[in-house]
């Protein structure tokens, strides 16, 4: 049996100039660079993204930054899990080359006054219940892409609306980075991996997979030609009966434009956001 492959922790950068110097040195050697943006609290889903980055590019950079501008006043910015040392240990399993861990003042100096708004795609779904969220996401991702200057950036499909917003911002601003979505990594019972899953108590964790089960059942019925309206009403009722609440949305949307759909005739997604106790869970399933 071959011995296990061991990797060192990635090189940690907190200085923008030092990061750029390292990336430019790789580029001079003809090496491609793939970025995996994260907010830390890394789990198996993040590690799968980094493994994919190493499979498609020579160098993998992982950013770790809990972005304050995408949290609302009553959201969980203060309690969002942070443990950079543990994150770096986990990244050693993946062979990641660099970790970009900027401070808040590096990302947002005291006189910072610019933000990026993406119209259309940010209306409805998470955009309706988290005002300003996607402006914070689009702004910080644009900054990360400009700081790292990767060839490719990877994002999980669990945050599907976010993925589409980032794709549109990159296209509209001619950033010259390829944005790729990677399928959601799930637990064996279907629950989408998320840093927020650690907030669930044992009883809530047992209920949480019902969210994916409801989405999968709706997607199957839509593929068979059913109308969305009755399916969504039944889905909300089932989630509420299971203990979710409030169910912020359960909708069927076009996979590219995110326009609402009653019947599916092309690529689409069933998307949901719902609270389980104090924990907000989101998920989506392709149709």
Describe the structure.
The protein has 287 residues and is of the alpha/beta class. It has two domains: 11-182, HUPs (Rossmann fold, 3-Layer(aba) Sandwich); 195-286, Pantoate--beta-alanine Ligase, Chain: A,domain 2, CATH 3.30.1300. It has ten helices and nine strands. It has helices at residues 16-28, 44-56, 84-91, 104-107, 126-129, 133-148, 160-172, 202-207, 210-223, 228-242, and strands at residues 11-13, 33-38, 59-64, 98-100, 152-156, 178-182, 247-254, 268-276, 279-286. The strands form two sheets. A six-stranded parallel beta sheet has the order 1-4-3-2-5-6, sandwiched between helices. Strands 7-8-9 form a three-stranded antiparallel beta sheet. It is globular and about 55 Å long.
Please summarize what this structure is.
The chain has 287 residues and is α/β, with parallel strands linked by helices.
CATH arch. level architecture of the largest domain: 3-Layer(aba) Sandwich
Identify the strand order in the major beta sheet.
1-4-3-2-5-6
Indicate the percent of residues in helices: 25-40%
Whole-number count of domains:
2
What's the story with the biggest beta sheet?
A: 6 strands, parallel
Ends distance:
42 Å
CATH superfamily of the largest domain: HUPs
CATH class categorisation of the largest domain: Alpha Beta
Assembly state here? Answer: single chain
Number of helices in the DSSP assignment:
10
- What's the total number of strands? 9
Sketch the topology as an H/E string, one letter per element: EHEHEHEHHHEHEHHHEEE
CATH topology of the largest domain: Rossmann fold
The global form is: globular
**C-alpha-based Rg, rounded:** 19 Å
Give the rounded overall mean pLDDT: 95
Strand residues, percent: 15-25%
Structural class: alpha/beta
Q: Low-confidence runs (pLDDT<50, min 5 residues)?
A: none
């Amino acid at each position: 049996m071959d011995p296990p492959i061991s990797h060192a922790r990635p090189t940690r950068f907190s200085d923008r100039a030092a990061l750029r110097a390292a990336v430019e040195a790789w580029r001079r050697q003809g090496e491609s660079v793939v970025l995996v943006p994260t907010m830390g609290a890394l789990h198996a889903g993040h590690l799968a993204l980094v493994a994919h980055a190493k499979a498609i590019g020579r160098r993998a950079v992982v950013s770790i930054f809990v972005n304050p501008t995408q949290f609302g006043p009553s959201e969980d910015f203060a309690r969002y899990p942070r443990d950079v040392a543990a994150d770096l240990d986990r990244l050693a399993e993946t062979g990641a080359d660099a970790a970009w861990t900027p401070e808040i003042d590096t990302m947002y100096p005291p006189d910072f006054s610019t933000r990026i708004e993406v119209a259309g795609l940010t209306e409805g779904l998470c955009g309706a219940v988290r005002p300003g969220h996607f402006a914070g996401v689009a702004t910080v991702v644009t900054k990360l892409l400009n700081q790292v200057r990767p060839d490719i950036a990877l994002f999980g499909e669990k945050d599907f609306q976010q993925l589409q917003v980032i794709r549109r911002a990159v296209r509209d601003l001619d950033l010259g980075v390829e944005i790729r979505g990677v399928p959601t990594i799930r637990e064996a019972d279907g629950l989408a991996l998320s840093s927020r899953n650690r907030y669930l108590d044992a009883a809530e964790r047992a209920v949480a997979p019902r969210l994916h089960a409801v989405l999968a059942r709706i997607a199957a019925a839509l593929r068979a030609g059913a109308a969305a309206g009755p399916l969504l009403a039944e889905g909300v009722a089932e989630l509420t009966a299971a203990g979710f609440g409030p169910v912020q949305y359960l909708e069927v949307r076009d996979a590219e434009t995110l326009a609402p759909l009653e019947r599916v005739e092309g690529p689409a997604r069933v998307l949901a956001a719902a609270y389980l106790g104090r924990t907000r869970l989101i998920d989506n399933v392709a149709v």
